[in-house]
């Protein structure tokens, strides 16, 4: 493992594909960065990159994951940014709530809301000894503000995450002024989740035609575009404590 000082530390969830994978690449492109991912992929440690295997349905394992981060205290003396990006998310179940399975409803809320809250709590205590700014970026969605027929659990979880963002922003910054907590909606991005949406029936998801047209018209952003924009805007201090942002509305 490279023992050189680290300036930018990132902890990113859900990195095996899509936006999470692109966020990892964008973070690694920064000089003197160290990126830890939490995913269901095999664990590894390569130079300035580590993956910790975890299923975020198993929320009892989240606290222990922080103890497995392989960054020495000597490496943290020059930190300017310590960042948690709560990116992992699941869309299932896609159906009217009356047709959903109990277990899938519970899993959706655990991954999309409960896990980010627990991650934020542990990250707060983990990062407080470090110098520099601390950031928690929660990935949200337009579904947090408008109901989508067939996305009851997903919309509820993202709406809850928006409110949790505001509460954590108030609480954490009152204790430690170096903390910024914000929520960012990446917009419509060409990911596996979008493919899943397009494969739905109208009975499952009434607005499927809208997403089919977005794909056909080339209106979907690439994961790389969204990830680069998010990292650049954060590093430039464009996200304010307690704010909720849509990448489609920001110039970068």
SSE diagram, text form:
Elements lengths: L7 E6 L4 H11 L4 E7 L4 E3 L2 E5 L8 H5 L14 E6 L15 H26 L5 E7 L12 H24 L3 E7 L6 H7 L9 H9 L6 H13 L8 E3 L6
Helix pairs in contact: 1-7, 3-4
Structure description:
The chain has 252 residues and is an alpha/beta fold. The chain has one domain (8-186, 226-249): NAD(P)-binding Rossmann-like Domain (Rossmann fold, 3-Layer(aba) Sandwich). The chain has helices at residues 18-28, 62-66, 102-127, 152-175, 192-198, 208-216, 223-235; strands at 8-13, 33-39, 44-46, 49-53, 81-86, 133-139, 179-185, 244-246. It is globular.
What is the CATH homology-level superfamily?
NAD(P)-binding Rossmann-like Domain
Name the overall outline: globular
Helix content: 25-40%
Distance between the termini: 34 Å
Biggest sheet, spatial arrangement of strands: 3-4-2-1-5-6-7-8
Average of the residue pLDDT scores: 93
- Number of strand elements: 8
**CATH fold-level name:** Rossmann fold
Could you tell me the strand content as a percent range?
15-25%
Short structural description:
The protein is of the alpha/beta class. It has helices at residues 18-28, 62-66, 102-127, 152-175, 192-198, 208-216, 223-235; strands at 8-13, 33-39, 44-46, 49-53, 81-86, 133-139, 179-185, 244-246.
Which descriptors would you attach to this protein?
252 residues, alpha/beta, Rossmann fold, 7 helices
